[in-house]
Amino acid sequence: MNNIRLAIVLLLVCSIAVGAKSDVTSISSMDILQWERVAAGVWKASIGKKELASMDYARPPKLKALADMGDAEFPFERDATLGQINASGANVRLPLEESEKIYGLGLEFNGINRRGNVYHLKVDHYGGVKGYTHAPVPFYISSKGYGVFVSTARRPSFYVGIGNRKDSKLPPYVDRTTGGSKWSARPVSDAVEASVAGDGLEVYVFGGSNPLEAVRRYNLYCGGGVLPPRWGLGFWHRMHTRSSDSDVLKEVAEFEKRDFPLDVLGLEPGWQSFAYPCSFDWDKTRFPEPKRLLNRLSKKGIKVNLWENPYVAPTSTISEALKPYTASHTVWLGQVPDYTIEAARKVLLDHHQKNHLDIGVSGYKFDEVDGYDVWLWPDHASFPSGHSAVQIRQLYGLMIQDMFMQRFGEMNKRTYGLVRSSNGAASPSGFVIYSDYYDHQGYVTALVNCSLAGVLWTPEIRSARSDEEWLRRFQSVCFSPLVQLNAWSSGKKPWSFPGVTGLVRDVIKLRTRLLPYMYTAFYDYNQRGIPPFRAMVLEAGFDHTEEIIAGKVHGEDNPYAETARLETTDQYMMGPSLLVAPVFAGQKSRKVVLPRGDWYDFYTGEMAGNGGTITIKTKLEQIPLFAKDGGIIPMMSPVNNIVSAKGTIDLEVRHYGRKENTYSLYDDDGETFDYEKGIHSVTGLKVQHLEGELTGTASTSGNQWQSRYGSISWKFMSP
Ligand code: GAL
C-alpha cells in the first residue's frame, strides 16, 4: 500500500470510530467519543483500530444481573468525552470535577486516592514505582459513583487530574513570587486523560450512584466474580521446594496430630524434573508415583496445587511441540510460548490434562508472569503471532488464567489457584494474586485495593521476626480470599512459633467456622458483583447497604459525603456485615473508622460505636472484628478438612444489634459448575422483633439442591 492510500484508510478508520468533530470548540483538536450502550448502565466507545485487549478475555457479561440493577445515567456530558489518534498513539479525555476523588487503577500497595498523579500501568513485580504492579488494571472509580475502564494490551498511562491542555478550562494563574501557597506545581486539571502507544483503544463507562454500583457493574460486565470451590476457602500450606512425596505425607500427618486444618497442599518447583525454566514433568526421584500420592491425599480430602512458571526447559516433554510457537528471546534460558496462539494453548493444556488434571491436581500457582525487566523478555522481542512483546507481557498472566479457566470449565470442575500477574476483565478468574514483597501493612492495603480492581489478593504468610508478627500476619491472612502459609523457602509450619501456636490454631479455626458466611459472600460476588472483601470507600457509610445497592440514596443524603474518612487503607469489609481491622506487630491500640450506624464487637456482641472513629486497645488473641447492626452471620463447627467433613453441618447463626434483617444463605455442591444451571440452595434467614423479642426463622423452599446444612441455633449476640 502506498503512503497516500494508507493515510486515507487510516483517516477513514479513525473518523468512523470517533465520529463527529466536537462542538466544544475549546478542545477542538479532539473528537467527541461515540458511545454505544452495551448493557444496562454500561457504555462503550472505541477509537482507532481494534487491538488485542484485556476485555477479549472476559466471560460473557451477566446481562440479567446488570438489568436487575436497573439503568444508570451516563455520568458525563457526552460532548465533553473526547478522543484522538495522534503521533503518540490513542488517547481519551474524560471530565473530572474539582471535588471528585478517583480510586482504583490496579493492585497498589500504597494509598487509595489516585487523584493528582500520573500512573504508567505496567505489569511488573512490585518495586515501589506507581503503576508498576502485579495487576495494573486500567479501571478507575470516581467518588461520584461511576467507573471507567480502558481495554488494551498496551501499557496505558493515566493522568488523573494532572496536566492541562491549553484549550481546556484552566484554573486561575497565580504568580509564584507573590501568590504564596496558592501557587501549585500541579495546577488542578478538569480531566482524566488516558493514552496508549498503539493504534487504538476501547473505553467502557460503568454508571452508578455510588462507587459500589460502578464496581458491581464492572464485575458483572466482565462475567461476574468468581465462585471458588468450597475447599479453596480452607487452609493452604505450601511445602518446601525440595520436598519429596514422603515429606508430604509426614507433613500431612503432623497437621493431623497437631489438630490443624489442611485443605490444599502446594508443591513448589521441586515437584518438577527441572525448574527454572520448567519441565512441567514430575520428578522421578522425589515424586516417583504422583498418582498414588494424589489418591492418598484425596482420600483425606486434601487437594494438590502445583507451582509453575511458563518458561519451557529443553528437557520438558513438550519442549519440541511448543517450539514453533515461541518468542525470539528466552527467560532463564527457557522458551517463551505465545499463548495468543490456539495451537500453543492446546499443547500445554493437553500435557497438563494428561499428567496433572487427570490424576487429580486441583489447580496451579502461575509464577513469574510479572517479573522484572532484567528477567523477562525485552520490549523488542518478537512473538510468532505478531503481537508486540509489550502486549504479550501485559496480558500474559491473564491469558494463562483464561486458558486454564476454560479447561476446568470443560471438565465441569471449579479451580482456585494463584497467579502473580493479572489485568482487566479478571473478576471471574479463580486465581488469587500474591507477591514476593512482604510488608504487612502494604499487604492489607493491597487487600483493600483489590476490591477496586476486580481481582483477588492474598496477604500470604511466609515467615516472621517474632511470635507477635507471626500471629498478626496469620490473623490478617485468615480474613482474606486465600489463607496460605507459603513455606517454599522458610520451611515453616503453622506451629513454628510455639509461643503463639494455640492462637494461630484458633484463628484458622475461626476462619473455617465462618465458611458458610464467606461462601455466600463469594456467591454475591458471582451473582451481584459485590466484592467479598471491600475497601471502606465501597461502603455506604449507612447501616443499610441494601439501600445503596438498590440505588435509593441520592443527592443530599448521599452518604459518600463521608468519603474522606472512609479512605482508610488498614481496614476493610468482609461480606455484608463484618468489618475487619487487622493489627500490625507492635500496635497496642488502633483507630477504627465506623460507617454510620451501630457497630458491635464480633466476639462479645457489645456495642462498639455508632459511626465516627473509635480507638481500641488491641488484644494479642484477637483480630478486631465488628458486626453491623442487624448483621446475620452463619457459622459452622470448625472442621480440619472441608471436603472430607461428613454428615449434616449444624449452624450457629449469630445476630448482632437490634435491627431486623434478612440474609440469603447460599449452598451448592462446592465443586462443579452445576450451580450455574440452578442446582443450588438458598436458605432464607430472617430476624424480626416478635412480641418484643428478637426471633430468628429459616425457610428453604424451591431449592433444586439439598443443602448439607442441618439444624440452626440462633445466637442473639447483643440482647
Ligand atoms: C517465587 C515465588 C515464591 C516461590 C518461589 C519458588 O518467584 O514468588 O512464592 O514460589 O518463586 O521458587
**What spatial form do the alpha-carbon principal axes imply?**
globular
CATH homolog superfamily of the largest domain? Glycosidases
Measured distance between first and last alpha carbons? 80 Å
Number of E-state strands:
38
Residue share in β-strands: 15-25%
Mean pLDDT: 93
Architecture of the largest domain in CATH?
Alpha-Beta Barrel
What is the C-level CATH assignment of the largest domain? Answer: Alpha Beta
Using the CA coordinates, give the radius of gyration.
26 Å
Strand order of the largest sheet: 23-22-21-20-17-16-15-24
Bound molecules: beta-D-galactopyranose
Total discrete domains: 4
Under CATH, the topology of the largest domain is which? TIM Barrel
What is the overall number of helices? 15
State the major sheet. Answer: 8 strands, parallel
The level of helicity is 10-25%
Q: Given the helix and strand composition, which structural class is it?
A: alpha+beta
Low-confidence stretches: 1-19, 542-556
Task: Please characterize this protein's 3D structure.
With 719 residues, the protein is an alpha+beta fold. The chain folds into four domains: 29-221, glycosyl hydrolase (family 31) (Immunoglobulin-like); 236-528, Alpha-Beta Barrel (TIM Barrel), CATH 3.20.20; 533-574 and 578-628, Immunoglobulin-like (Sandwich); 632-716, Immunoglobulin-like (Sandwich). The chain is 22% helix and 24% strand. It has 15 helices and 38 strands. The strands form nine sheets. Strands 23-22-21-20-17-16-15-24 form an eight-stranded parallel β-sheet. Strands 1-4-5-13-12-7 form a six-stranded antiparallel β-sheet, with no helix packed on it. Strands 2-3-14-11-10-6 form a six-stranded antiparallel β-sheet. Strand 15 (235-238), helix 5 (245-257) and strand 16 (264-267) form a beta-alpha-beta unit. The relative contact order is 0.10. Mean pLDDT is 93; it is low at 1-19 and 542-556. The protein binds beta-D-galactopyranose. Beta-D-galactopyranose is lined by residues 241, 268-269, 307, 367-368, 436, 486, 488.
